[in-house]
Amino acid sequence: MTTTTRLDPAVLKLAGVLVLGALAPLLDSTIVSIAIHTLGHDLGASTTAVQWVATAYLLALATVVPVSGWAVERYGARRVWLGSLGLFLAGSVLCGLAWNIGSLIAFRVLQGIGGGVLLPVLQTLVMRAAGGRDLGRLMAVITLPALVGPILGPVLGGLIVGHLSWRWIFYVNLPLCLLALALARRYLPEDGPGTASRLDTTGLLLLSPGLAALVYGLSQDGLARDTALPVGALLVALFTAHALRAPAPLVDLRLFQDRAFAVSSTLMFLNGLALYGGMFLLPLYYQQAHGEGVVAAGLLLAPQGLGSLLSRATGPLTDRVGPRPIVLTGLLLSALGTLPFALHHPAAALLPLALVVRGLGMSAANLAVNVGAYQGLSPDRIPHGSTTVRIVQQLGGSAGTAVLAAVLARGGFPPAFLWSTACTVLAALVALALPAQVAAPERPS
Questions:
Q1: Could you tell me the domains of the chain?
Q2: Cβ-based burial of 344 (10 A; exposed 0-12, middle 13-18, buried ≥19)
């Protein structure tokens, strides 16, 4: 007989404090994407120049993520969290004070450095505190920012751009960050003595620019893409060869020897492709195919947020039955919810229901995949696991946006949504390789 225990209140409080801090950078990304056109107009910048407001942030984030695991081990998770959140806050203030497009891009890099470390550190702190138990229910809590950002971001961004100065798309981060810093200083556990491990400088010089080149190449086209992607792939390949020989690599690739982690990481990439690719397509679909404004498009996407919130109920179920059945069911529901958008003339009443199904399926699958990645990892391997998971998600999201943007440009919305559906079905086939049930460590007496 399976018994359900209450979540440890201390772990739940810790998760709540960290979720609040992670909400600011995830909201920021979606808000800024809505305001790109306005930024170009108000700052007198070309389309090419203003796109770097988003690209510079992504490149900074991709560059700093690999360092997060080493930083947690060296300096302690509490110090790294407070420092990163403070840096993101400073970057937000400076972005709001920017006087031209060049200064705004530079300050977005500062924001990206701070924001890039927050999610891996969040997962490291909560997974360590949980001790391998109740991971499904905890994932239902700590993945909330990833749901709230896409729901609130477009609407909030549209309201700010429509009624206030563009500077408020950055100033809106201030109250969230200040409150998160105050709560973190009070409730985050004190760090123990850091390890004396040295930074893998060779790994850093290979992996960080390699990831930045891949993300940049995936966000560009033409010569920039054709140059950046091979360079990025070569640097990542060289890092792989280095990491498999080094005694203390920047990111421990030996984690992929664990079947659950390896399959979950592959699913992270494919799920990121479908999730972030859909986040790119859906607002454009309502704005271009249906002629809706920015705020109206954001509101029309609200049913997807409702489905995502309903998926929180799958957290306890994942703890009982294991990740595989939840991932499979979630991915098939996501494919079912995406398919109506691939029709040339879908019934208008069908689309809100399809968004609820898509949101429920995608979020349930994402939650269960995260559980599969962390189950069975010992506490000392969790920082490397968090770093790897974040890198794979980032690359999957960048690849999904690039692929679907290319398909959209050549064939329109129906083929683009059909590609998204096909990627989701492919992920479901990969999910069959997940272990049926991964044993969790025994709870200490």
A1: 7-186 (1.20.1250.20), 200-249 (no CATH), 252-438 (1.20.1250.20)
A2: exposed
